[in-house]
Amino acid sequence: MINLVFAPPVWDHYGRTVIEAPAVLLDGHVERSHGAINLIVHKAEAMTMPAPTARRRRFGR
Question: Taking the model in full, what pTM does it have?
Answer without folding.
Answer: 0.73
